[in-house]
Request: fold
Amino acid sequence: MENNDNKITTVQENTDTDNSFLGRLRRVKPTRWVRFGLVTAVFIFWVVLMGNPWLLFLWLLIADIYITNYVPWGWWKKKKGLTRSLMAWVDAIVYALVLIYFVFAFVGQQYEIPSSSLEKSLLIGDRLWVDKTVYGARVPQTPIHFPLAQHTLPLLNCKSYIDNPQLDYHRLPGVREIERGDIVVFNYPQGDTVTLKVQNPDYYMIIDQLVREGVRNPRAYIAQHPEVFGEVVVRPVDRRENYVKRAIGLPGERIRIKSDTIYINGKAIAEPENVQYNYIIPVTGAIEPERWQELGVNADDHGGTPMRNEFTGELFYDVPLTYAAKKTVEVWPEVKGKLVRESESGYYDLSGMFPTSASAEYGWTRPNMGEFWIPKRGSTLHITPQNYAIYERAIRTYEGNKVERRGDTILINGKPTEYYTFKMDYYWMMGDNRDRSADSRYWGFVPEDHIVGSPVFIIVSLDKERGFTDGKIRWNRILKNPNPDRSSGKWKE
Reply:
């Protein structure tokens, strides 16, 4: 009997120390097999949704964690003292970052309004929760990145992402499509190329400005003046700046802007209730900042002190106002004449609009743009020398083709053609603060692969011009719907 017990013990010891593949499988408990099966099922479902079969290689990692244990993931748990304490913190931080990564990538994230382009719908200092599921979460095209930084790591001032691998565009199923009137967060289309010292205006607007100033080779000029512009950087789609605007034109529609009125398929559409336009306000002297503040006009918008007309010597402000605010300003004692729309005053050059590459040729201005078609996925466009500049960037940059024009002949990927079928939907985005908004009128269409999500509520709202004891926190905006126009049905056809 004693000999038999020894044999059993020896067999058990051999089993416990057998590090072969089969030996490791034999040591796995039935409950662990069940958990492994459930995790595998969820993982495969996730891979299907992601639309990338290469992700199946990650299953080997799951198999090792639950079954084979070739990698000693929990080695630090057997340690004592400082090593164990330090690794426990590292483990918690890694788990937190992974969780944040997936939440920000597939659920939503916060976004702060930095400018007045959507006032009075959204105010500077509003922090929004942006829902990425409403239009379908976009699979990260740059999967290896730090989840808390868009493109640059603070303090270190270096990239927050690794360029490769770059995944193809894919979007998970969403609740609905983008509708007119939606406030949408998206990656800045012309943000693919920036100069690090001058990121606003973007690279293409700098080139257009240099051309209008008479510079013959603007790209070479930028490269020759690194002290002014800095390094020229090309960013992946999902690592570009986040912009927020209102969807005005939808895929397949024809849009025209005449005297600031927007026409879709020949019909004038509604404006946001609090839409703003810039007005030239003639005054006898300065207006107290408190008056502007009470009216809800930011210091950046009113400028503090009035400007002087270099020809007449008259003082004036150039300020964005809603219709209601305009009525209030008209009766201020400092105002000495009729308020005139900035676009009608002749004070400013309103040119330099989309298409940037041929802005002078088209002659479009901010309040007046000729009718054109917004590309739609699966629709075919007849390309002509007349409309080439409008669609060239979409075909080349957004859809990845080689495009060339030789006289009246259009070549796509080296072949002469008169027709092109679009692979993606495109949108026309504009701000409610119409004369203070860098939007589609300047840089054109927004492709669907740039769409991030839509804000669903305001987390907190901070007035940068006030202190914490003077109403800095806008309590009345917390948890409010950031798009009341949309929810009230204002934009229904």
